[in-house]
From TrEMBL:
Annotated ranges, domain UBA: 182-228, 288-328
Protein name stated in the entry: Ubiquitin-associated domain-containing protein 1
Gene3D superfamilies assigned: 1.10.260.100, DNA helicase RuvA subunit, C-terminal domain (1.10.8.10), Phosphatidylinositol 3-kinase Catalytic Subunit, Chain A, domain 1 (3.10.20.90)
UniProt GO cellular component terms: cytoplasm; ubiquitin ligase complex
InterPro entries, sorted: STI1_HS-bd (IPR006636), UBA (IPR015940), UBA-like_sf (IPR009060), UBA1_UBAC1 (IPR041926), UBA2_UBAC1 (IPR041927), UBAC1 (IPR052476), Ubiquitin-like_dom (IPR000626), Ubiquitin-like_domsf (IPR029071)
A Pfam match: UBA_7
Region annotated Disordered, chain positions: 232-272
Taxonomic source organism: Catharus fuscescens (Veery)
Length: 405
């Protein structure tokens, strides 16, 4: 009677198996999960309790919470309520341990795929001859390449001018090319950007200078204007740029020369007019130093003329120009106007190339050579051009081929 009085509450639980069997189990709430599991196994697997591993190979899962019940805990401790559903599931068999031969083979495969360490590299390359690349020599070779390419362009310009002078339509072709140069976008100022700055209250001339210094970026130009608002030299013209009247005078002199040439006879008249157009094109393609680089180098104490020369020699590269100014200053600016030896194998190989020969008869090729001569940073533009790109590619290939031999 005492046992009945103090016995725990009896719960009726609905138990199911994966095979589809189901039944009701009535157990006191102080029954352990392991005892409940044994009672369930008697229903679904008769005689299975003879094997002690059967109980450990099964588990009870609470269907609602999907929780695996712990064998040592009671039904009450697992918070199981009356009429709850439990699922009796057989545990998965543990994976078989790999064979020793398989382990060895896998380890060997990993070792073969592993990158070699420093000691292995040194051991494998111990018998190879030592080679070291001098960075100063590489830089010197690159500078020699740029200098040699410039000499090639100088000589090719002379050849192209002579070939084009024989073309009866050369004057008209170069007049059109000259008109194209008048629309050079580098000399333009973005009107929308300029209007934005002037509407903020900045003077127009100062805003133009700021935009040119900052590659037409309104944000950077505004920051520059604010930073240099109290600078006494803020309105000074950019260093290295010719005065505004220079092009007009050049154009006037070219016009006068062209007018004078028109009074001569037919062949001489066309020749003189073509010469003047060549001169006018070259004046328009004068070297334009990077204003920021000029200012930075002048702040170091160098004179403006020598700074412009340094940037011209070193293709507008500020660091290289600084090294040139502090070093032996070779090559000199005068060396840049010298052409290549016309009897050299390199120049003969370039002239014998059919693509180069055809390109030299195109006025656009001459314009490209002139532009790259004075503004090397524009080389990419001409390399990507469908007319001048193949010519530049052949010149580069011939140079690299002969330079390796």
């Amino acid at each position: 009677q005492e046992e009945k009085i103090f016995a725990g509450k009896v719960l009726r639980l609905h138990v199911c198996t994966m095979e589809g069997a189901e039944w009701l189990e009535e157990v006191p709430e102080d029954t352990t999960v392991e005892k409940l599991k044994e009672r369930c196994l008697k229903h679904c697997v008769p005689g299975s309790l003879e094997d002690p591993k059967t109980v450990t190979h099964h588990k009870l899962i609470h269907a609602t919470s999907e929780k695996v019940l712990t064998d040592t805990k009671t039904v009450l401790e697992e918070n199981i309520q009356d009429r709850d559903v439990l699922l009796l599931v057989k545990k998965r068999a543990p994976a078989l341990l790999p064979k020793m031969a398989d382990v060895v083979a896998e380890e060997k495969r990993k070792q073969e795929q592993k990158a070699p360490d420093k000691d292995a590299i040194l051991k494998a390359t111990a018998n190879l001859p030592a080679r070291s690349v001098d960075r100063t020599v590489s830089h010197h070779n690159m500078r020699d390449f740029q200098t040699e390419l410039r000499k090639i362009l100088v000589s090719l310009i002379e050849v192209a001018q002579k070939l084009l002078a024989l073309n009866p339509d050369a004057v008209e072709l170069f007049k059109k090319a000259n008109a194209m140069l008048d629309e050079d976008e580098e000399d333009r100022v973005d009107e929308i950007a300029l209007r934005q700055l002037t509407e903020m209250g900045f003077p127009e001339s100062r805003a133009v200078k700021a935009l040119r210094l900052n590659h037409m970026s309104v944000t950077q130009a505004m920051e520059w204007l604010i930073e240099h608002a109290d600078d006494p030299a803020v309105d000074a013209p950019l260093p290295g740029q010719p005065p505004a009247e220079a092009p007009a005078e050049g154009a006037a002199s070219s016009a006068e020369a062209a007018a004078g040439a028109s009074s001569e006879e037919g062949g001489e008249e066309a020749k003189d007019e073509l010469t003047e157009i060549f001169k006018k094109i070259r004046r328009k393609r004068e070297f334009r130093p990077d204003p920021r680089a000029v200012i930075a180098l002048m702040e170091m104490g160098f004179d403006e003329k020598e700074v412009v020369d340094a940037l011209r020699v070193n293709n507008n590269q500020q660091n290289a120009a600084c090294e040139w100014l502090l070093g032996d200053r070779k090559p000199s600016p005068e060396d840049l106007d010298k052409g290549i030896d016309t009897n050299s194998p390199l120049f003969q190989a370039i002239l014998e190339n059919p693509v180069v020969q055809l390109g030299l008869t195109n006025p656009k090729t001459l314009l490209a050579f002139e532009d790259m001569l004075e503004n090397p940073l524009n080389s990419t533009q001409w390399m990507n051009d469908p007319e001048t790109g193949p010519v530049m590619l052949q010149i580069s290939r011939i140079f690299q081929t002969l330079n390796r031999t």
